[in-house]
Amino acid sequence: MLGRVSQRKSFFNFRRDINPKSHLLETTVLLLALSFGIQDSATYPIFQCFASNQTGNTVLFAIHIFHLTSDDRLSHTIVPIAISLGAFLAGAIFFGQVACLLRSVRRKWWLLVSSSLQTAIVASAAGIQLGYAAARKSDTPIGRAALALQAVAAGGQVSMVRGLMMSDLTTTMATAALVDVLIDPQLFAAPAKNIGRNRRVGFLIALVAGSFIGAAVYKNNGPGLTLMVGFIIKALATGMLLFNSTVPDDEEGG
Q: PANTHER family, alphabetically (predicted)?
C-alpha cells in the first residue's frame, strides 16, 4: 500500500526532476521525433528549407550566399532559410535560458509548460496554413510567419530534450544517431543488453516514419493538414509527460 502511494507521488510531484530512465519518457521523445519528421515534410516543399534540421539549412544558406545554384526558384529561398535559422535559435535560447534561470531544466512542471507552449505554437502554424492560401507560398509574410512559428517550436523542443540528458535521443540529428548505431561494439547484442542502441534505432525509425507520413499526407491534403497531424502527435507527447515518473529529491540535478 505504501509503495503504491509512493509511486503515485512520483507521477504527480511536478516539482521534481522527471525520470530520464523511464520507458514512458523514451516513448514520449520518440513521438516528438515522429512529429519533427512530419513537420519538416510540410515545410520543405514550400520553402525549400527545414524548420528543425538546421544543419541542412546552414549548408543551403552558404550555397545561396555564394550563388552556387542556377535555379531561380531556389535562389529566392535565402530569406526563408534565414528566418528558420533565426527563429530556431531564438526558440532554443528562450526556452533553454528560461529553464536555466528557473533552475528547472528537468523539472516536470517546466517540461509540461514548455512542451505545451511549443505545441500551441505548432497549432498556430497549422491554423495559419489551413486558413490562409497565401501561407502556402514562400514569398508571403504570412507564409514566413508560419515557418518562423514552426522553427521557434523546434528550437524549444530540441533544447528541452537535450536538457533531459538522454544523449541517445536528440529528436533531430539523424546522421549522428545512425553513425553511433553502426559503430556500436554491441550492435548485434540482445535488446535487453544494449539500451542505447535500441533508443537510437527507435529514434531513426520514428524520424523516417514521420518523414514518410508527412510526405504522404502533404501529397493528398496539403501542408495545413500535415502540420495538424504533427500537432496532434506533439500534443499526445505533451500529455504523456503528465504520467512520467519523477526521481527522488536526493537524485535531482535541477
A: DUF1275 DOMAIN-CONTAINING PROTEIN
Q: What tens digit of pLDDT does each residue of 202-254 get?
A: 999 999 999 999 999 999 999 999 999 999 999 999 999 999 988 876 556 55
Contact indicator for 88, 151 with CB cutoff of 8 Å: yes
φ, ψ for residue 19 (rounded to 5)? -80, 110
Describe the crossing of helices 78-101 and 108-131 by its angle, rounded to 10 degrees: 160
Amino acid identity at 72: D
Instruction: Give the pLDDT band (50/70/90) at residue 2.
Output: very low
| Spans of all domains in the chain | 33-242
The Cα–Cα gap between 250 and 54 comes to 37
Q: Do 233 and 226 form a contact (C-beta atoms < 8 A)? A: no
Which residue type is seen at 36?
F
Location of C-alpha cell 515534410: 41
Residue type, 227: L
Residues 6+ apart with CB under 8 A from 185: none
Cell triple for residue 106? 528537468
Nearest-angstrom CA–CA distance, 215 and 192? 34
| Residue closest to 165 by CA, chosen among 19, 27, 15 | 19
Q: What is the pLDDT of residues 145-172, one digit of tens each?
A: 999 999 999 999 999 998 888 877 766 6
| Spatial distance between the Cα atoms of 57 and 52, rounded to a whole number of angstroms | 9
